[in-house]
Design brief:
The protein is an alpha/beta fold. The chain is built from seven helices and twelve strands. Strand 10 and strand 11 form a beta hairpin. It starts with 12 loop residues before the first helix and ends with a strand.
Length: 267
């Protein structure tokens, strides 16, 4: 038994399969950051910090000629969102129902996705995380007033990263409104805007809830590191006669190694 305490929950094997499948479906698409940065792990719940490879000098201990240095690390942060599932819904699933109400789980997945994407792209100062967009020294590029402006803006952002000496291919993370606009837009002659942007980038376009505007970043590797301790998992908290109270949880850190490998685009 591990810290998730799943064995203590009054949930059958088919119930856990239902919950895990639903969570996986709700999480895979919008976890945009993970599709564009280097992912390391998962290293387990006990993994507590990321090695930064740097030191800071400490006051000398007793003893002449002794120099003291302390290794610097970035502690992992833990994210958790509570939700509950009706025990009646779980029993109906065991009977073969195919329309279980898992709205609470869906909302929990949405919240934790947004929190992760915001931390990676826009930073989380209290956790010591510098986001990709805020760390970039490149002047933000306005996306433009309409979707027709997007190709020019994205091309400018790509060129800015290339001029900074960072090779491609490049990826594009889009906020929800911007992503919807792109997939719904066809340019003159009926050519999809999505395809045009992919040709400019040479890489993927991802939907990333929580992103403000958009971010172009290099996919060459080694510039951005997402280190996972425990990957997103469902754990058990407690239950009563009506519901089982669960949670979604993860631990991670994020490090920007090459700030100029990305360019933000403002909405």
């Amino acid at each position: 038994m591990n810290h998730l305490l799943r064995d203590l929950a009054p949930i059958s094997a088919s119930g856990w399969e239902l919950l895990d499948d639903e969570a996986r479906e709700r999480l895979q698409g919008p976890l945009g950051a993970r599709r564009l940065v280097d992912f390391s792990g998962p290293h387990g719940w006990q993994h507590s910090a990321t090695n930064l490879g740097r030191t800071e000098e400490l006051p000398r201990p007793n003893g002449e000629g002794v120099v003291a240095l302390q290794r610097r690390v970035l502690p992992l942060v833990e994210l958790r969102v509570d939700f509950s599932v009706s025990r009646a819904e779980l029993r109906d699933n065991d009977r073969g129902a195919v329309d279980a109400d898992l709205e609470s789980l869906d909302e929990a997945a949405r919240q934790i996705v947004v929190a992760e994407n915001v931390a990676v792209f826009h930073g989380w100062a209290e956790a010591g995380i510098a986001g990709i967009a805020e760390a970039s020294p490149i002047e933000p590029v306005p996306l433009g007033a309409s979707a027709e402006d997007y190709p020019r803006s994205v091309a400018r952002a790509v060129e800015a990263v290339r001029q900074a000496g960072v090779a491609g291919p490049y990826g594009l993370a889009l906020g929800p409104d911007e992503y919807t606009l792109v997939i719904e837009t066809a340019e003159h002659g009926g050519y999809p805007l999505f395809d045009h942007l992919e040709k400019i980038l040479g890489g993927p376009i991802v939907w990333a809830p929580g992103v403000k505007g958009a971010v172009v970043l290099s996919l060459r590797g080694g510039d951005f590191l997402f280190e996972s301790g425990q990957d997103l998992s469902i754990g058990y908290d407690h239950h009563d006669g009506e519901a089982v109270h669960l949670y979604l949880e993860e631990s991670f850190s994020f490090v920007v190694a090459t700030a100029e490998a990305a360019a933000p685009l403002t909405p």
